[in-house]
Amino acid sequence: MLVNKAAYGQSYSPYEGGYSVKEVVIIGGGASGLVAAIVAARRGAKVCLLERLSRVGKKILVTGNGRCNITNTQLKANCYHTSSEVYPIMGPIERFGYEETKTFFEELGIAFLVEGQKVYPCSEQATSVLDVLRMEAERLQVEILTDVKVTDLFYKKDGWQIVGEQGQTYASKKVIVATGGMANASLGCDGTGYNLLKRLGHQITPTFPILVHMLSSSPYCKMMMGTKVKADVKIEVEGKVMREDYGEVLFTEDGLSGPPIFQLSRIASRAKLEKQSAKVVIDLFKDISYDEMVSLLYERIARHPERSIEELFIGLLHKRIIVPVLKAATIVQIGRPCENLEYDEIARIATTLKGFTFPVEGTRGYKYAQVTAGGVKIDEVDLSTMGSLKAKDLYITGEVLDVDGDCGGYNLQWAWSTGFIAGESVSRNGVKA
Ligand SMILES: Cc1cc2nc3c(=O)[nH]c(=O)nc-3n(C[C@H](O)[C@H](O)[C@H](O)COP(=O)(O)OP(=O)(O)OC[C@H]3O[C@@H](n4cnc5c(N)ncnc54)[C@H](O)[C@@H]3O)c2cc1C
Asked: Cα torsion at 407, 412, 415, 416 (round to 10°)?
């Protein structure tokens, strides 16, 4: 692989000579940019990839907690989201879906490990995924220029001029913008891609962080900090249940985390953006009804009437959540014998166990988010080519677009699919003018 540092103030241009002609420049060496580069180069295009960090694919390394949840066996439409109400967004996934992704990566050397619906590389190391992408890019002589932050992009005469932060320019026939969103800026994504595309006439729908920890002012979060419970979790916005998920919830000093919380965080983040009230309701006993819960409590009281109210729950609840549950149910004097509990107190406890409620004030934001929702308006892009409908010979891939997926491999799949299609499109009819 040709990896160069960008030279300060240098101008690289196929028109001015002195530098190899680049037919395709890809801005952003993340998941979608690397796949686009490989696909275009396999089809004979001379590809140059510009990456602002010192190495490509840094974000890939942290995906799936370092294991890289590469895709999902069930790529269903209801796992993808956009703010566009009418535009079908599944085209790229249908075109380059699970089977195609499996074949693509298997050919690169990645064996798939399927856990439920989630798919990981058999090595369970995200580095393997990045390694095979880099090795293939190297084999194909993709030129990778690192430490190049692109700050401007404009069309001049018969090609694109791409301007780096240090004033250097690059020229190419076709450009793919693969700059990602704004999640986890330390991994390279600070939203510059939106500005580049806005200046070219694209509309950017409101962005917000998703797949992220939720913030709650509930005092019980701090009391239960570090505790995990398996529970059914609902999110309500303005009193209406919007979505439900099941899994392990982690209580933290400032709120809630864990897979179901991440899954519902899109709704919390959007509610915050729209200044709507949101709350999370946790059912600690999803398999039994409210009435069965009340009966269960009476049975436990009958078995050990001498135990205190607090002791009544030992063996039923994690020890660290007993007092918070009782406080939330406004039970006082929890040291008294449980046989003293009145019916309405038992009813309040059962209500809390079936719906422990946490107001949600927002999320921990882009810094901690895995993905950005919102972005380049999707109906301004031809999803069969990933070509911009606003500018000629411009293609857009991945998270910078207004499409996001649930937690579970859906976002990388969107990056692989759109990268593949753009890579094919830029090399479809030959790239030379
Ligand atoms: C902690 C974490 C865990 C995740 N885990 C998973 C998971 O397991 N499964 C899953 O499906 N998804 C996961 N995701 C989401 C997934 O990584 C992204 O959706 C995906 O990488 C987006 O691909 P992309 O090509 O659009 O952008 P990215 O992969 O983010 O790449 C964009 C690249 O562009 C570069 N860049 C940005 N601006 C410029 C510029 N102006 N000039 C030059 N270069 C620029 C960046 O440095 C970056 O390298 C995770 C994300 C995070 C943060």
From this structure: -140
